[in-house]
Write a structure and sequence with these properties.
Order of helices and strands: EEEHEEHEHHHHEHEE
Helix content: 25-40%
Number of helices: 7
Strand order of the largest sheet: 6-7-8-3-9
Structural class: alpha/beta
Shape: globular
Number of strands: 9
Length: about 200
């Protein structure tokens, strides 16, 4: 379903990577590893269409990505906590849904935040939350928006042990239901199940 071939990326005069390719089908996931500055985030941004590649192609279900269908079936969570500091977790989650063109019932949003360990913090301004709690606000999107492809850049950063296990379980369930995931991390990932590829 996700076919990548010949991807190349440069930053200034420096070539970060070239001739990157892989294929992922339902239930498979890719673990992108590398040192800081090796191009992991750049690769993720190329995959989701946020940056242009020097060369190569990304196909989703046989069509060149990004396309409207690709965007509808994608959840991308970047390295930085892209949340509005003055909004509450509930408001952030509902805003994300609105930007995706989807309605999100308040009860469903609250249930997702509670499951992510944010009970009692749903109505606080995000600016007063810890880094790990902000990351949980972002990750709650995984519970509220159906998507076949999850692209998660350093998603386990700033999470405590319980949240790491929860996220690992969510990814495993996603793969078990036929989803695909591309993940970056500096360390081994607690994702049981699914067929794992390493880049």
């Amino acid at each position: 379903m996700l076919n990548v071939s010949g991807l190349a990326c440069s930053r200034g005069d420096r070539r970060l990577f070239s001739d990157v390719g892989f294929d992922l089908a339902a239930g498979e996931w890719l673990h992108v590893q590398g040192e800081n500055g090796s191009g992991k985030t750049s690769l993720m941004r190329l995959l989701v269409g946020l940056s242009p590649a020097d060369a190569g192609t990304v196909l989703w279900r046989g069509e060149v990505a990004p396309s409207p269908d690709f965007r509808r079936e994608l959840i991308y969570i970047g390295h930085h906590a892209a949340v509005k500091e003055d909004l509450t977790p509930l408001e952030n989650l509902r805003l994300s849904a609105a930007l995706d063109g989807a309605a999100l019932d308040e009860r469903d949003a609250l249930a997702a935040l509670v499951r992510m360990g944010l009970r009692g913090r749903e109505e606080l301004p995000v600016r007063v939350l810890s880094a790990g709690q902000k990351r949980r606000v972002l990750l709650a999107r995984l519970l509220t928006r159906p998507a076949a492809l999850w692209v998660l850049d350093e998603a386990f950063n700033a999470l405590d042990v319980a949240a790491v296990k929860l996220l690992g379980d969510l990814i495993s369930a996603h793969l078990g239901s036929g989803g695909i995931a591309v993940l970056t991390s500096h360390q081994p990932l607690p994702v049981p199940g699914g067929k794992a590829l390493v880049l």
